[in-house]
Specification:
With about 190 residues, the protein is α+β, with helices and mostly antiparallel strands. The protein contains five helices and nine strands; from the N terminus they run H-E-E-E-H-E-H-E-H-E-E-E-E-H. The chain has a seven-stranded mixed beta sheet with strand order 2-1-5-4-3-8-9. It has a two-stranded antiparallel ribbon with strand order 6-7. It has one domain: Glutaredoxin.
Length: about 190
Amino acid sequence: MKWLVALLVLGLAASTTAATRTDIGGPFQLTNQNGQRVTERSFGEPVLLYFGFLTCPDICPTDLAKMARISRQLQQQQGLKVQPVFVTVDPERDTPEKLKTYVNYFASNFIGLTGSAQDIVRITDAYHVYYKKVPYGDKPGQYMMDHSTILFLLDSQGRYLKHFGRGADEKDIEKQVVTALADSTAAQ
C-alpha cells in the first residue's frame, strides 16, 4: 500500500511539473505562406503548433487534418478561436508558395511557416522537436524527414501551455485546450 501512495504522489508531482514547464517554446521569427515575417506573437490568438514537412506521405497530412478539425470544433462548439500553424522541418524544399497550397488543403485559416535552416534549428531546439534528413529511394538526393509528432498549444501571447502526443483523442485534446486556456486566462 505504501508503494501505491508513493506512486500517486510522484504522479501528482510529475503532472504539476509538466503543467508549469518553462523550458519549452520561446521567441521565433519565421516566414508565413504569404512571404511575411512573423513571430510567436503575430497570431493574436491561441495556437495549435505542429512540425512536419510537405512531402510526408501519411503522418503529417493525418495530423494536420486532425488539427483543422480540432480548431473548427473549438470555434463551433466553444466559441474559441485557435489558430492551426504548421512549421516545416524541411525548409530546403518547403517554400512559402508550396506551403500556401499545402495548408489550404486542410483549412483556409491554416498558417504554414518556413525560414532559413538556422531559423528552423532555433525553433525546433526551443520546442525540443527532433528532426533528421534520411536518405530515401534509389536516386541521389532523395530524402524523407524523420521528425517528432507532437502538437503544441500556445496562448495568445505565443507562450507554451501544453502538448499532446500523436495518439491523443481529438475530443480529449479539445477538452484539455479549453481547460488550459481558461487556466491561463485566470492566472493572468
